[in-house]
């Protein structure tokens, strides 16, 4: 490094930890340490808590707890290079169990060995500030409190004696599984800050200027929650393709509007019970007589609790889209998971009713208060993947049967599709 005081150590734990990193990673970590130590005015010996918090943009109890874990509870206000190296080796390069255990301890912001509702609320508030209001740390509106509550509602707490509710390690892992954005954020706290890093990426919502944001069901926090289950390119920008309050509760209009999209879609429903939920469709909606889609699709809840339910692999019944079929075995409408007439989520082709049942496709529960639902508002957002439109324009058109999938599916019903090929 060309600096006599550049960090180096003969600490056995540091030597072992350094083996988890490449030479380039170690060089980058040393450069970062020297820079932050210089800002701390410590003669390149340590990083002060204030400089650490300012750089990584994590504040509040979560930041204090992270510093305590890094310094092994010395609480001397000095984060050394060894501290940072050893922590990152466990937190980022450890086994799955080691990482989960570290994150579990991290969320116990009071450090009392009990992960309580208070701890999780403090963790969520710190993440919310880091993602949504980095320039206004510490301020939370009533709306923010409501947002935090839907994430807390996904948590399971086990009563322990006369004390407060607490969360077991197993329940904590389940909570992280249904809240991938929260889990990604908790796993990225020592990554140099960047809006595109996992857990901090916020999809940009694009909609016509004459539409008020108050009309939209999908809020920025909801988009962040859903985006945590997507790839970086799919979580960059979403465009409003259909809104029932503007376009009317019309299946034909819905299909016409979403056909202009080039990629996957996010379907959001608010029912008359006030529950909000939906599904991510990895493939374009096309009229078919059977299930289609792939394992990237999933169901989600947004209110009164936030959860994501990914495919279990139990079956391939991912997406459903049928209309103008006369057979009782082919329900007309759009849906996700389950089986015919018993979907994980289904909206009839009239857009006036639907249902949601627990299903093994996504291991999801009934998404609303009751299984039979009446949609109040339906929104559909298209993911905008840059460069995809030009690539699609160059693709060959394919055979007649490939271009007219509707006819192909009808042939399948009578066993003629293979013969026609």
TrEMBL record:
PROSITE patterns referenced in this protein's UniProt entry, alphabetically: TLDC (PS51886)
A Pfam family recorded for this sequence: TLD
SMART domains: TLDc
Superkingdom as given in the UniProt entry: Eukaryota
Domain TLDc: 216-384
Name of the gene encoding the protein in the UniProt record: LOC120270909
Entries under PANTHER family matching the protein: CALCIUM-BINDING EF-HAND FAMILY PROTEIN-RELATED (PTHR23354:SF95), NUCLEOLAR PROTEIN 7/ESTROGEN RECEPTOR COACTIVATOR-RELATED (PTHR23354)
Protein's name in the database: Uncharacterized protein LOC120270909 isoform X1
């Amino acid at each position: 490094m060309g600096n006599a005081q550049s960090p180096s150590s003969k600490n056995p734990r540091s030597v072992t930890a350094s083996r988890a990193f490449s030479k380039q990673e170690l060089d980058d970590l040393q450069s970062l340490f020297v820079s932050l130590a210089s800002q701390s005015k410590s003669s390149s010996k340590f990083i002060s808590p204030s400089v650490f918090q300012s750089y990584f943009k994590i504040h509040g109890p979560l930041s204090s707890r992270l510093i305590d874990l890094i310094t092994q509870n010395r609480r001397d206000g000095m984060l050394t290079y060894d501290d940072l190296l050893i922590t990152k080796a466990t937190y980022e390069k450890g086994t799955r169990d080691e990482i989960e255990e570290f994150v579990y301890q991290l969320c116990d912001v009071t450090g009392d060995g009990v992960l309580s509702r208070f701890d999780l609320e403090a963790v969520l508030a710190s993440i919310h500030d880091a993602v949504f209001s980095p320039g206004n740390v510490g301020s939370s509106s009533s709306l923010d409190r409501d947002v935090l509550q839907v994430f807390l509602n996904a948590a399971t707490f086990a009563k322990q004696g006369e004390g407060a509710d607490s969360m077991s390690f197993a329940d904590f892992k389940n909570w992280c599984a249904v809240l991938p954005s929260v889990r990604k954020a908790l796993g990225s706290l020592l990554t140099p800050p960047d809006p595109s890093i996992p857990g901090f990426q916020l999809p940009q919502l694009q909609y016509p200027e004459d539409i008020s944001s108050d009309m939209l069901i999908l809020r920025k926090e909801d988009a962040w929650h859903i985006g945590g289950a997507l790839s970086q390119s799919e979580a960059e920008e979403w465009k409003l393709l259909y809104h029932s309050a503007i376009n009317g509760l019309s299946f034909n209009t819905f299909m016409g509007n979403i056909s202009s999209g080039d990629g996957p879609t996010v379907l959001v429903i608010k029912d008359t019970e006030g529950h909000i939920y939906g599904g991510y469709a990895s493939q374009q909606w096309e009229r078919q007589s059977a299930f289609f889609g792939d394992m990237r699709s999933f169901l989600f809840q947004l209110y009164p609790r936030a959860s994501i339910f990914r495919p279990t692999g139990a079956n391939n019944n991912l997406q459903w889209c049928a209309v103008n079929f006369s057979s009782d075995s082919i329900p007309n409408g759009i849906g996700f998971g389950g089986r015919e007439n018993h979907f994980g989520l289904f909206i009839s082709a009239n857009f006036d009713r639907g249902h949601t049942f627990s299903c093994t496709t996504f291991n999801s529960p009934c998404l609303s208060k009751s299984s039979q639902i009446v949609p109040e508002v339906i929104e559909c957002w298209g993911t905008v993947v840059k460069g995809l439109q030009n690539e699609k324009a160059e693709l060959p058109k394919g055979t007649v049967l490939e271009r007219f999938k509707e006819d192909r599916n009808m042939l399948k019903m009578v066993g003629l599709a293979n013969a026609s090929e």
